[in-house]
Design a protein that fits this description.
- The protein has 436 residues and is an alpha/beta fold.
- It is built from 12 helices and 15 strands.
- Strands 6-5-7-8-9-10 form a 6-stranded parallel β-sheet. The protein has a 5-stranded mixed β-sheet with strand order 13-12-11-15-14, with helices on one face. Strands 3-2-1-4 form a 4-stranded parallel β-sheet, with helices on one face.
- The longest helix has 17 residues.
Length: 436
């Protein structure tokens, strides 16, 4: 006998989790065929489920519970179950724990049925910004680099996104930054665009994104680059070449494998918490397309290399510009670790010092001889916050990392404290072949 069931996707469900819930609905359609399922999900994300349930509502719509024989409230938790025959994702756990289903079909992957109104809205928006389409795609690349949750475990830095956008532009394509909230400073409305929320937006004017329109938008781009997020889950439902960059999360726990999706994971990924069980690590090796990167600069280099292949254009790599103090020991230390930080990409080096300084000229000649260095120059850039040292004779040096579009390597604080090169950037191994 048929039974009407309401499944409400409650706490923890965002757009990405709602899209992945299609895996659960596909299994329920097979193993609970007598269930007539209605789903209630976050507004905007709910449209992804239209094809996979009898009725689809969002959380702002009232529900008459008297219509249902059973109501299931689902909340997502980070509890972890290790599987060796399926992805160790929250949806695999949901099937097992919430619906007592032990069977799992790896080919039951999320799919979004994009209907004509959504496709027309996405097409019109892209045509106005990326010219005419060819073979169903516009000369555009979608980029989503800032998530809505666990941002410290997901987001790319603005400088990384800036370099990726520069590579997209070098390829003769239009960057489409999926920045609905308006947080990215890169969107200028002239060369880099974003389908932001507000006014007569393409999302329906209710203050958020629409999974169906998002799928239509990504489907009509030539490539998609993103982080662990809802748009990334949507991209994997399309035929658009997709790359997902991971920093502190791992796809084994948060993303189903798809043939058209490449995952970039940090070097040493086997030691991250989800992979502590060797069965999970082996399943990941066997069923996911992935590559490993070393550090934030190598991540950008691998993204631009993948993009060049996806678009069929020459190498889009842009040299990284490092700023190094124009002092002998500082430069030696910096060069010893620069190759690991650059991840094989060529570097431009700016020596922070006075051009007429004898030491700066010697350091200039030394750095110019190093492999992997494309160009060297001397500039009078500040490397301290204040000119005068403190009472102990120590300076307040700028931190290592990105400042004003340059990447600073300043080991001097460790040097002044009597530390060793292993104490400076301890996670980056020194490569002495660079300096011998």
């Amino acid at each position: 006998m048929d039974m009407r069931v309401l499944i409400r996707l409650c706490g923890g469900f965002g757009t990405g989790d709602t899209v992945q819930f299609i895996v659960v609905l596909k299994h329920l359609r097979r193993y609970r065929p007598h269930w007539i399922i209605d789903c209630q999900a976050p507004r905007g994300a709910h449209v992804a489920l239209v094809e996979w349930c009898a009725g689809c509502l969002h959380h702002d719509e009232p529900v008459d519970l008297t219509q249902y024989e059973r109501a299931v409230d689902l909340e997502l938790h980070e509890q972890y179950i290790a599987f060796d025959d399926r992805p160790s994702t929250k949806m695999a756990r949901c099937l097992w724990v919430n619906f007592d289903l032990r069977e799992f079909h790896r080919d039951y992957l999320p799919e979004i049925n994009v209907r004509q109104p959504a496709r027309k809205r996405a097409t019109a928006w892209l045509r106005a910004r990326a010219g005419d389409d060819s073979d169903g795609r516009f000369r555009a690349v979608a980029l989503h680099y800032q998530g809505q949750s666990s941002k410290h475990k997901k987001d790319l830095e603005h400088w990384q996104a800036r370099e990726i956008c520069a590579a997209i532009l070098r390829a003769g394509r239009t960057p489409i930054v999926l920045d609905l909230a308006g947080d990215s400073p890169l969107v200028d409305g002239t060369t880099i665009f974003s389908p932001r929320v507000g006014g007569q937006d393409i999302w329906g004017g209710y203050g958020g994104g629409d999974a169906e329109v998002m799928a239509a938008l990504i489907q009509q781009c030539e490539a998609y680059i993103g982080v662990d997020s809802g748009p990334g889950k949507i991209a994997s439902t399309t035929s658009t070449p997709t790359l997902i960059a991971w920093t502190r999360h791992h796809p084994a726990q948060f993303h189903d494998p798809h043939d058209g999706t490449l995952h970039l994971v940090p070097d040493g990924w086997e030691s991250s918490p989800p992979l502590g069980d060797h069965r999970v690590a082996q399943y990941f090796r066997d069923h996911y397309r992935f590559d490993a990167y070393r550090g934030p600069h190598d991540l950008v280099g691998r993204i631009t290399g993948w993009l060049a292949l996806a678009l069929g254009v020459p190498n889009l790599g842009i040299p990284i510009e490092f700023v190094v103090p124009a002092r002998r020991q500082s430069a030696i230390w910096a060069m010893a670790k620069m190759s690991a930080l650059a991840g094989g990409r060529r570097c431009n080096v700016t020596l922070a010092g006075m051009r007429d300084s004898y030491e700066a000229q010697q350091v200039f000649e030394y750095v110019s001889r190093q492999d992997g260095v494309a160009a060297v120059r001397i500039m009078n850039l500040p490397i301290v916050h204040r000119a005068e040292p403190d009472s102990r004779g120590r300076h307040d040096y700028l931190s290592d990392g990105e400042h004003d579009g340059r990447h600073y390597l300043i080991p001097d604080r460790v040097i002044e404290a009597g530390g060793s090169i292993d104490d400076w950037l301890p996670d980056v191994k020194a490569n002495w072949s660079m300096v011998l």
